[in-house]
Amino acid sequence: MAIILASSNKGKIREISDLLGREIVPYSDVVGEVDIVEDGKSFKENAIIKARTIYEKIPDAVVIADDSGISVPALGGEPGIYSARYAGEGASDKENLQKLIDTLKERGIERTPAYYTAAIAIASPQGIYTVHGWMWGEVIAEARGDKGFGYDPMFIPEGYNETLGELDEEIKQRISHRAKALRLAKIVLERLDV
Ligand code: ITT
CATH number of 3-191: 3.40.50.2300, 3.40.50.620, 3.90.1150.30, 3.90.950.10? Predict the structure, then answer.
């Protein structure tokens, strides 16, 4: 059975299909664009909202959603669940990245601990399940490299000296928040017999 992915983010769609190693269909191919109101108070709540909204339009399918973002403890956890709209509603990845760099610079911070979170929700006829994954490291007040997407050019994962913009994408696929969450999601999918 094909799995439907409740995401319009091209970077995520690419990473999730690579990591799951099986066919996934972006929801927009099945039902067109849907306006999903992400008004949850946590990554988990927003992942459930996305999965449920699409599942209600395609009942009997198995729908996967990913809600993710980067949190910087020195900024009180910002941007966190607001990562996609840090520079304002409808902001591009580039604008959000620049906003985080500018915010660090304004505070006189060159480098500080940060972590990515991914919450994955799976909506199925058997119910809704969620799993999480995290990746720790540091953010720097500049962008280096153009691999990955989003905040990757300013994020240095623990144990490395380069940003995810510079490192081989294969490394991110091994250690990322999304990879860790998807390893758990695979177990759920096996149990659901999908
Ligand atoms: P969908 O809701 O359609 O899936 P979105 O981009 O709006 O797409 P989110 O609400 O989950 O998704 O926001 C996630 C943001 O966090 C995303 O826009 C990136 O800026 C950032 N982000 C999440 N995972 C990332 C990663 O692996 N690398 C870089 N940035 C990431």
Answer: 3.90.950.10
Active-site position among 29, 35, 66, 67: 67
pLDDT in tens, 63-110: 999 999 999 999 999 999 999 999 999 999 999 999 999 999 999 999
CB 16 within 8 A of CB 120: no
Residue at token pair 């008004």 = 39
Query: How many Å apart are CA 76 and CA 56, to the nearest integer?
Result: 35
Closest residue by Cα to atom 21, ligand 1, is 69
- 53 band by pLDDT with thresholds 50, 70 and 90: very high
Name the token pair of 59.
């009942």
Task: Using alpha carbons only, give the angle 93, 98, 101 rounded to the nearest 5 degrees.
Answer: 130
Task: Phi first, then psi: give them for residue 29, nearest 5 degrees.
Answer: -70, -25
Task: Please tell me the distance between residue 36's alpha carbon and the centre of ligand 1 in angstroms.
Answer: 14
CA distance 130 to 73: 24
Label the pairing between strands 3-5 and 62-72.
parallel
